[in-house]
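Example 3.2
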Amino acid sequence: MLLPPCCWGHPWAQAYPSKPIRLVVPFPAGGATDIFARTLSQKLGEKLGVAVVVENRPGAGGTIGSDLVAKAPADGYTLLLATSSTHSIGPALNPKMPYDAVRDFTPICHVGNAPSIMLVPNSSPAKTLKEWVDYARKNPGRLNYASSGNGTIVQLTAELFKSQAGLFLVHIPYKGTALAIPDLVSGKVDVLFDSLPTGLPHVRDGRLRALAVTSAQRTPMAPDLPAVAELLPGFESNTWFGLYGPKGLPADVTARVNTAVNQALADADVKERLARLGIEGVGGTPAQFAQMAALDAAKWKKIITERKIVAE
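Structure, written as tokens:
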């Protein structure tokens, strides 16, 4: 049936999508989020039948790019690859953010998790996670942990670990975990929760010892390592990645993108490329994504408030 002339040119006159989609990455090119976006966008474009163009809009810890999408038209042609930094941790650290992480976005899909790895020096007397926790409990205030700075996922993971294990550890912030590695190797630092892809090579090279991973269960990326949750039930810390649209995104558009994303994440090549980044593809429904993000935000807000953590 032909549409009347009054409907020509309207968005609903053509099936979605009918033109390229802009995927905003609120971080610089070359980082994990950017590489993830480019890995996902190619396969997502194939599933949707249009180009998905990655656009980097870095600045203010991901706030600038996220705010751009929050204020974009809700037509499905501007999407955001967000992270726990922009939508879980950031709002708790900075209540004056220009957007509301819940009200100003439409959740589409939880696309990935990047767990951390618990690293200790080879000189550590502890060979297992339980031995390390027991040792730390017997030496309150004598052990320290390194982080990549105040308010980062590295610090928050350690603080969550301290809270659940009942430990007193001293915080030593660095400007990036790479700068902490030499002090960890030498034994000046007692523990570091580093990202899996950057930390694991030091273990394979024999420079450091790995005791656990921070995902809820063991990860196929390091299958021999226990999850911290095996000793501390309920413990979980991931950098998550998720796809959002602006608030008010039509339900049919949300469903169309969600289906395509899940299909893209099931692709063997995408799985392999993500694994090399230290990321596990997730997938699922928009409702599942919204629930996960809400629980994660509440967890970090509690830690940030209780520990009086302030971003640098």
